[in-house]
Amino acid sequence: MLEIAAARPYPYLAPAGAIALVMIDMQRDFLEPGGFGAALGNDVTLLAPCIEPAARLLAGFRRAGLPIVHTRECHRPDLSDCPPAKRGRGRGPLRIGDPGPMGRILIAGEPGVEIIDDLAPRPGEIVIDKPGKGAFHATSLQQQLRAWSVSHLVIAGVTTEVCVQTTLREANDRGYDCVLAEDATASYFPAFKQAVLDMVVAQGGIVGWTASVSQLLEVL
Ligand code: TIU
């Protein structure tokens, strides 16, 4: 049994071998200028501080031989999996599917959808393309986790209050015990990140736990 004694709001326990890492959407479209994040009017440099901790977390899971899932938010080139309501959201200069400096925004196969070099997936790691904010919606994620007999998840990535929080809540409703990696997640709105950390652990850990990457690495 793994035990993160210092997790918030109280110790997090996971059977050894039943825990996986889900690294959410660490793709160029959110972390680099010229992608979807920037098109929405955000300062993408605000996400940079989570890259190094995310790399350490990935390295820890690799060393321990534990399962790793990377996700990418993207859509089919014909946009058949992008609800018009999602495409129509926002008033920025570029919308999903429009050509930008890193190819068509949030379209599978385009350079913007690639996971950044520092966190590039390795052979044996699963990469799931997801059309929603949550990683369970319209994907094979749950099937994959069942195949691994995984019941516990460490969740990291960007952005904290959008795809990370949605995925954590989807996982919680499906019965997974989730711990959010505090320094391996980031938001374009630091106050929103802090609010998510606070709301996850409030009410006795109503939707999960949080812990720092160092605390996680100690037990992997
Ligand atoms: N806009 C924003 O903060 N996030 C997203 O649109 N997607 C993810 O969080 N991946």
Strand order of the largest sheet: 7-4-3-8-9-10
Number of helices: 8
Share in helix: 25-40%
Shape designation? globular
Secondary-structure element order, N to C:
EEEHHHEHEEEHEHEHEH
Strand content: 15-25%
Low-confidence stretches are none
By helix and strand content, what is the structural category? alpha/beta
The biggest sheet, with number of strands, parallel, antiparallel or mixed sense and barrel status, is:
6 strands, parallel
Q: Terminal Cα separation, in Å? A: 10 Å
So what's the oligomer here? single chain
How many beta-strand segments? 10
Radius of gyration: 17 Å
Mean pLDDT: 97
**Ligand species:** tricarbonodiimidic diamide
Structure description:
By secondary structure, the protein is α/β, with parallel strands linked by helices. Helices cover 32% and strands 21% of the residues. It contains 8 helices and 10 strands. The strands form 3 sheets. A 6-stranded parallel sheet has the order 7-4-3-8-9-10, sandwiched between helices. Strands 1-2 form a two-stranded antiparallel sheet. The chain has a two-stranded antiparallel ribbon with strand order 5-6. Helix 7 links the parallel strand 9 and strand 10. The longest helix has 16 residues. The termini are close together. The model has no long low-confidence stretch (mean pLDDT 97). The protein binds tricarbonodiimidic diamide. Tricarbonodiimidic diamide (TIU) binds next to helix 6.
